[in-house]
Write a structure and sequence with these properties.
Layout (H helix, E strand, L loop, with lengths): L21 H36 L5 H26 L1 H20 L4 H29 L2 H32 L3 H5 L2 H14 L13 H19 L6 H24 L13 H21 L2 H8 L4 H28 L2 H20 L7 H28 L3 H37 L3 H9 L1 H5 L3 H33 L9
Helix pairs in contact: 1-4, 1-5, 1-7, 2-3, 2-4, 2-8, 2-15, 3-4, 3-7, 4-15, 5-12, 5-14, 8-9, 10-14, 10-15, 10-18, 11-12, 11-18, 12-13, 12-14, 13-14, 13-18, 14-15, 15-18, 16-18
């Protein structure tokens, strides 16, 4: 295993990041946490205001693209930014990404119709692709492997805080200022992060000419972009369009593989995937990400539709996952110091399986507390898994590959989330169509408290059984992803630890 102190480089290049003193290191940590919060809150806060945006701008048929285009552009640019950070240093890539994100943020607040908002969200996503992975890479540079577990716990807590603050802040701003201010609220966070990184992070990167793999970048964007578009929007696009997108994606990825084998500085270094720790960590991020979003995307629907509770109850149940995620990340850092990456990964995966098992046993009569216990257990598993996978990956490569390795792992998590949400959604819709094709259109009434209370008792019981049974099958798929995570965790090399 290579030296991970940041001082020894496999290629011999003098790209040695200066080890900051404790004060500067804490300020850099805060800058990375602020940047991560800015990108994380973007999804939760926008979800709150989308009905207001649609009522103002119109274009209801395009509103799903407000979310989809952001996820797509963010995901497909992550590996590109990671490789550029290895070639030119973390700071310039981070500055570019935050600047592009803030430019898109300003433009989103100036949107005049739904198509313009979708275009500006794409710009936002292209910038967001640099923020979280580069921030995580910077933290991997300035903290030793033995310290990264604690740091990842702080990063995880940021996601939990954003999940809680985002909806409330969005609702407050819409009511008192207007929906455009919801986008602009991120501007001071971005400026603060850029200033702090500029002042306190010091890099020593050898200034030499690089041959940028533009062909690889383009093929990567086309390949994964086409496949993710076909996956995420497969239900709304025609069969011919989905097949064409999938074929284009596969051909682009084959061409990418051939290209990366021949260029001197590939955008996606293939040797990373010969590293067992990277393969295990990336695949683990993929399956755990699929499980997590497959659960979280539909758990509030179960609370509202099957149990008949208010929307706020569904939010609180899902929040149980965020409550345990951060403490579990801190605990994972301590456990892996005394044991091994493998044990922590297995414990986390077992918690994922146990949490999904609780949700599989869920019935409408059980109530929100039983559902919250499942989310609570899954949060523990995600805290363990997300921490051990990223820490082990960053510890397995030298400085000049850490950006690509971190970004590749995060990219796999995004792809997994897209597959988890779309896969569980497909199972949900297919089961509902099999149980009662007419119920698909009637579920909207089940989710609205006013129309639900006006339903005939027999119809209410029938629709409740349909949606509960359909969500049960969706959670079967989520459980399968959790079981795959456990199998992958067993493949982590034994006795490795920070």
């Amino acid at each position: 295993m290579p030296d991970v102190s940041g001082e020894s480089l496999g290629s011999g290049l003098p790209q040695i990041p200066e080890r900051p003193n404790e004060i500067r290191r804490r300020l850099i940590l805060w800058a990375c946490l602020i940047a991560t919060f800015m990108a994380a809150i973007e999804s939760t806060i926008v979800a709150t205001i989308i009905p207001t945006i649609v009522s103002d701008l119109g274009g209801f048929n395009l509103f799903t693209w407000v979310f989809t285009i952001y996820v797509l552009t963010q995901a497909v640019t992550i590996p590109v930014y990671g490789r550029l950070a290895d070639l030119y240093g973390r700071k310039p890539v981070f500055f570019f990404g935050v600047s592009l994100f803030l430019a898109g943020t300003v433009l989103c607040g100036l949107s005049w119709d739904m198509p313009s908002l979708v275009v500006f969200r794409a710009i936002q996503g292209c910038g967001a692709g640099a923020i979280q992975p580069i921030a995580a890479t910077v933290l991997g540079d300035i903290y030793k492997p033995s310290e990264r577990g604690r740091v990842q716990g702080l990063v995880s807590s940021v996601f939990g805080v954003s999940a809680v603050i985002g909806p409330s802040l969005g609702a407050f701003l819409v009511q008192h200022v207007g929906w455009r201010a919801v986008f602009w609220v991120n501007i001071p966070f971005g400026i603060a992060a850029v200033v702090m990184i500029a002042v306190f992070l010091r890099e020593k990167v050898e200034r030499r000419s690089h041959r940028i793999d533009w062909a690889g970048s383009l093929l990567l964007l086309v390949g994964f972009g086409s496949l993710m578009l076909a996956l995420v929007q497969g239900g709304t696009l025609g069969l011919a369009t989905v097949v064409a997108l999938a074929a284009a994606g596969v051909l682009a990825l084959v061409a990418l593989y051939l290209n990366e084998r021949s260029v001197p500085e590939p955008m996606l270094p293939l040797e990373l995937w010969r590293n067992r720790v990277i393969v295990v960590g990336s695949l683990g991020n993929f399956t755990s990400g699929a499980m997590m979003l497959g659960v979280s995307a539909f758990l509030p629907t179960y609370i509202q539709g099957a149990m008949g509770r208010e929307a706020i109850v569904g939010g609180l149940v899902l929040g149980a996952m965020s409550v345990t995620w951060a403490p579990a990340s801190f605990l994972a850092g301590r456990v892996m110091m005394r044991t091994s990456y493998r044990l922590v990964a297995i414990l986390g995966a077992l918690s994922l399986v146990a949490g999904c098992g609780i949700l599989l046993a869920l019935t409408p009569a059980d109530g929100p507390w039983w559902a919250a216990s499942g989310a609570f257990t899954i949060g523990i598993g995600m805290g363990f898994c997300s921490t051990v996978f990223i820490v082990s990956i960053q510890a397995s490569v030298p400085w000049q590959q850490r950006g690509a390795a971190t970004s590749s792992s995060m990219f796999m998590r995004f792809v997994g989330q897209a597959i988890g949400a779309s896969g569980c959604g497909a199972v949900l819709n297919a089961t509902m169509s099999r149980l009662d094709p007419g119920a698909v259109g009637a579920v909207d009434r089940l989710l609205d408290p006013a129309t639900r209370s006006a339903m005939a008792p027999a119809e209410l019981v029938h629709l409740t059984e349909v949606i509960a049974g359909s969500l049960h099958n969706a959670y079967l798929l989520a459980t399968a992803f959790a079981a795959l995570t456990l199998l992958i965790a067993w493949q982590m090399p034994a006795r490795l630890r920070p």
